[in-house]
Amino acid sequence: MALAGITSAVTLSLGVLIKPWEGRELHAYRDIVGVWTICDGETKGVKPGMVKTNAECDAMLLRRVEQDFYRPLTVCIPNFKELPLSLQASLVSAGYNVGVGAICNSTAARLAKADDHRAACHAVTRFNRAGGKVVRGLKLRREYGDASRIGELELCLAGLK
Question: Which of 25, 31, 68, 115 does the annotation list as catalytic?
Fold first, then answer.
């Protein structure tokens, strides 16, 4: 995946959070709540029977994260680019997973705007449900990860001074 010109927050989020937690499926499938999904958790425009190559998945993921998640977060959180890189990456990852609107309207965004970085990191952990139920994998992703993947909270807090 060519990352020239891509922000550090996007690069960190993709490499450390999004790709490891989403996994890659080249054939469309239904996720745990029944939404058609492909590649690295992509749901936009996915139809049954779709197939993508690794190169198509890489390009789609990079484009979507930069344009549809990172950029909108810089609008709804005016000081986004000044936040610690680890908090930016955690918010981008959470936004990719739950939707940028949910993050923009969240307690985490309000706290980030107020420069309460530690509290914003912890607030992201609230997005640990699917279909109204706490999901172990989402809880791990939002908090301290597992044996092979770092969690959003763990990364977020590690980057604070």
Answer: 31
